[in-house]
Amino acid sequence: MPEGDTIHRSAARLRQVLVGATVRNFRAPRIEGDRPKVGTSIEVVEAVGKHLLIHFDDGLILQTHMRMSGSWHLYRPGERWQRPAHTARVVIEIDGWVAVCFSAPVVRSYRAAAARTPVDHLGVDLCLADADVDIALQRIVRFASPDSEIAPVLLDQRIACGIGNVYKSETLFACRVSPFTRLHDVDEATRRSLFETAARLLQANLGAGPRTTVVSGGLAVYGRLRRPCLRCGTPIERRPQGQPQRVTYWCPRCQPETVRC
Questions:
Q1: For 170-189, what is each residue's pLDDT tens digit?
Q2: What is the dihedral of CA 118, 120, 126, 128, to 10 degrees?
Q3: Would you give the DSSP letter of residue 1?
């Protein structure tokens, strides 16, 4: 599943060409909800956690969620697409550009005036500069069991959105917390440090260039199975966690099951 920074980057690219433009053609073969009409204009493109929202001037909002497979691309008219046409879930044509969403499992629309929307359940977006960590700390009590392991808690988008497997693993490494520590053993100061660290890392990667977390030019633990820890040299380990299971990378020496932060 794409991390929050990936979705914010996609929104930034789309925003540059779509906002203020008039829809010349719109295709979405399996959309849930209404389709924007030709002639409507695009007012806002935004990322909310891992959801990308496109607002039209008639009050309709298009929501896409990439999960593991989806991505947005921009092309010039007539330019060859990088993915097969049959995988296109959304095609928006404007003057001079074609925006295509490939393979997104969730494509639906709703009205801005709706009493409830598909993103109401989301916690604070850690990709935003004004992300309020206090809200995330309050929502932990509401949505997480004290017996939960801390790594799946960080992935719960109802608590705070934007963290995926990469930032989960990197944040826990940065704070020297074992991914398997139970929530009731993680004190308030450590919980705060985890969310503040995740927010800092996500926000640092909203621009162009390769993703960098707690080491210069790359990642500390994610994707480094059996390679030496950059702190202590211990081989990095990997294990699935949670329901549904998501992969976690960690250093067993730097991240013992006693909380250190």
A1: 999 999 999 999 999 999 99
A2: 90
A3: -
Tokens 């005036």 correspond to what residue? 113
Cα–Cα nearest to 104, from 84, 89, 119, 92: 89
Helices (H), 58-184: 133-143, 150-155, 165-174
98 touches 75 (CB < 8 A): yes
Let me know how long the chain is: 261
pTM of the model: 0.89
71 C-beta neighbours (distance < 10 Å), count: 18
Query: Tokens at residue 101, please?
Result: 């969403």
User: Catalytic residue numbers?
Assistant: 2-3, 50, 246
Other beta carbons within 10 angstroms of residue 79's beta carbon come to 11
Beta strands in 151-222 (DSSP E): 160-161
* Lookup: tokens for 170: 């990197």
